[in-house]
Amino acid sequence: MNLDFGITDLSGTFSVMDVVLSLSLAFVTSLVVAWTYRATHRNISYSQSYVHTLIILGMLIALIMLVVGSNIARAFALVGALSVVRFRNAIKETRDVGFIFLVMALGMACGTRFYTLAVLATVVICVVVLLMHRFNWFALNVQRQVVKVQVPADEGDYTGAIDDVLIVTTEEFELISTESVRGGTLLELVYSARLRKGVTPGAVIERLRALNAGQKATVLTGYDQTDM
After folding, report:
1. Deepest in the core among 54, 118, 214, 223, taking most CB within 10 A?
2. Which residues pair with 175 in a beta bridge?
3. Which residue ranges make up each domain of the chain?
4. Is the pTM of this model over 0.85?
């Protein structure tokens, strides 16, 4: 008695071996992408859950492509089913979106049985990402700071005095927000600035606290490379 291992009742277009090979290759390629993401991640918002999701997503897309096959009706049904799903997790870095699209593309290649394309794309793209990380391509070596100063709300206008301090200690600065804090008793002024060469954040804080009645003053360095 011969056993039929083809999944003919679903699509008639792939066998069990196709399923195993597609999902296995999707797992391996997604694993390589996940390792590349981990090796090149720089900021403090690393999430193990996100990396696990990359691997799961790659295999899931491969499965979806196997299910859809060349059936147009099934493809439209899948789009309708997925349209009810809402994802509300914020993506902190633009490159995270790129890695999501990468594992999706690799999953599609594996699910449609373009195995050579999936392997070559994984190698080439991951090597490019590693090279960009290793040689720090397109880095802009201009480090900016955020200066936050809290001043009494009912004791006159401190803006002019703060501007005088920033003129001396920074190359350029710009007021980006003014906010009332502590029930309206204090105003928090937030500036984007670039410190002069040789000026330390501590020196700026010392000058600001000398004129804001001892209230809080903060200098955040390199905020464009740090999660806030």
Report:
1. 118
2. 191
3. 16-135, 145-225
4. no
